[in-house]
Design brief:
This protein is mainly α and 509 residues long. The protein has 18 helices and no strands. 81% of the residues lie in helices and 0% in strands. The longest helix is centred in the C-terminal third of the chain and has 50 residues. The chain is globular.
Length: 509
């Protein structure tokens, strides 16, 4: 089946942006009301439980990505039989995974008090709260989640995003109303019940649309030995990668809760929410492009794919540098206006979170190509090293420097192992005829460009205060101009800039 990669990518990006406006802005408003209605300790519990369930979600092992990867070729060849067999296998695996997560969560419940420094607010039942989070996680596996793979493989993330907007939007509106009307600890239980219903609604919506638009696909048939072999290999590599990603994104909150307490977990969560929001916006681009890149990998030459890789990386890094400079320039001003001095870190903390965000972004295009090619098995050793380094540094630096040490402990393996090691694997296994050193040198120049942009933007905003919405707006206007001007001046004569400009103008006109 012919997949229109450009059309689908454009549609996915447009709907993705609308989706992020809903699922990022509304939760931000809810989080703000939550802090002032129920308090920082309650929000700390929310961050802790989310992190714990993310750890348990490792049992998913990356099956979803592996199944979608295995669908690219059958879709291109109109192989309905193989797609049906993959769906049947996916459904069976997800039922098993949901049961495992439920059992592991129940086993973990007696140990929850030991993960909280200073204890839980006495008016709350820690175990009932955790049970809501556990059921919410399991609901995704038992309620038609496997059908979403069809939408992803056909590059229809726009449908997934629309359904997400409906379910998350309704959830946030009901939660916001609840927090404004009922300022009682018991409201927290209803708050979580709404979250569970939203998850169920989301899965049901995706299922109904797949049944209508792709009615030719059903859970039937058996996979061939070749495909089972590919799945086994890819899932083995993905399992290690998922564990690595879990230690990076979820263990921080658990370590902070154990070492420092729930209030500091909330402060970390507030700063990290801004990073997560920006990452979510940037992920619109990579998620919209992933299936198209996967289709290009199986249908185009390596030469064309390498040219696309450089082009996409150049555009992405321009956006990443601009957003990183803007993040650092606005961070403290925004936090002061939003939550006040009592829930803020120092400027050094803001710089660390900015570097953390940048470290997450520098390898995104490389990671997108690795996923599209299916290099999860080849990445297994890199993921193990990153995971071990992250946990050890979290423990050591967290003990020594608290929250600052834990953020730094995440940045170090991201750059040294994930970015450099991941690039080596991609160039060794796919872009064999091209130099990895050029790619790394390009990224060193990107980093230096960002550093210069931060300094010049800092000079430009030096006399502007950082205590009001007006100062935030003025800083934002300067951030629109200075970082982009710096990047343009640095790269206006480069081949990458000329090629990218030519490609963008061709797409527009």
């Amino acid at each position: 089946m012919k997949v229109n990669r450009t059309k689908n990518a454009k549609r996915n990006i447009i709907v993705g942006i609308i989706n992020k406006c809903v699922v990022l802005i509304l939760p931000f408003i809810v989080r703000t009301v939550f802090i002032y209605s129920l308090g920082a300790e309650y929000l700390g519990l929310n961050s802790l439980f989310t992190s714990i369930l993310s750890v348990l979600n490792v049992t998913e092992l990356g099956f979803s990505s592996a199944v979608v990867y295995c669908m690219y070729k059958p879709i291109a060849n109109d192989d309905e039989k193989t797609i049906n067999a993959l769906l049947k296998f996916y459904k069976k695996v997800y039922s098993v995974i949901g049961t495992i997560i439920l059992c592991l969560g129940l086993i973990l419940m007696p140990f929850l008090p030991h993960l909280i420094n200073g204890g839980c607010p006495p008016e709350l039942n820690l175990y009932v709260l955790f049970l809501f989070y556990l059921l919410n996680t399991c609901a995704s596996y038992f309620l038609f989640a496997y059908k979403k793979s069809i939408l992803e493989a056909f590059q229809r993330r726009d449908i997934i995003d629309w359904n997400n907007m409906i379910s998350v939007g309704l959830m946030n509106l009901f939660q916001l109303t609840l927090l404004l009307v009922w300022k009682s600890p018991k409201a927290y239980y209803v708050y979580l019940a709404i979250m569970l219903l939203s998850t169920m609604l989301n899965n049901i919506l995706n299922s109904k649309i797949v049944d209508k638009k792709y009615s030719q696909y059903h859970c039937k048939g058996e996979l061939s030995g070749d495909i089972k072999g590919v799945l086994k290999k890819q899932v083995s590599g993905l399992m290690i990668t998922r564990i690595c990603q879990m230690t990076r994104t979820s263990c921080d909150s658990i370590f902070i809760s154990a070492f420092v307490g729930l209030t500091m977990t909330t402060i970390y969560g507030n700063y990290n929410m801004i990073v997560t929001t920006l990452v979510g916006v940037m992920n619109i681009l990579t998620n919209a492009m992933l299936a198209g890149v996967g289709n290009s990998i199986v249908s185009e030459s390596k030469e064309k794919n390498y040219k696309d890789f450089r082009k996409f990386n150049f555009i992405y890094m321009w956006i990443s540098i601009w957003s990183s400079v803007t993040l650092f320039t606005l961070y403290q001003n925004f936090m002061r206006v939003w939550v006040g001095e009592s829930l803020m870190l120092t400027t050094y903390g803001a710089l660390l979170f900015t570097l953390y965000y940048y470290a997450l972004k520098i390898g995104d295009i490389r990671a997108m190509y690795s996923d599209a090619i299916g290099l999860w098995w080849e990445n297994r050793n890199r993921a193990v090293i990153e995971m071990i380094m992250n946990i050890l540094l979290n423990f050591i630096l967290g003990k020594l420097y608290g929250i600052y040490g834990i953020v730094l402990a995440t940045i170090i393996p991201l750059v040294t192992v994930n970015f450099i090691g991941g690039a080596q694997i991609l160039f060794k296994n796919y872009f064999k005829l091209y130099s990895m050193k050029i790619y790394l040198f390009d990224n060193i120049k990107f980093f230096l460009t960002m550093a210069v942009a931060i300094i010049l933007t800092g000079i430009a905003t030096y006399r502007i205060g950082d205590t009001s919405i007006i100062s935030l707006a003025l800083r934002g206007v300067i951030c629109l101009i200075v970082p982009n001007a710096v990047f343009w001046l640095c790269y206006r004569r480069s081949d990458d800039y000329r090629e990218t400009r030519k490609w963008i103008l061709k797409k527009i006109y």
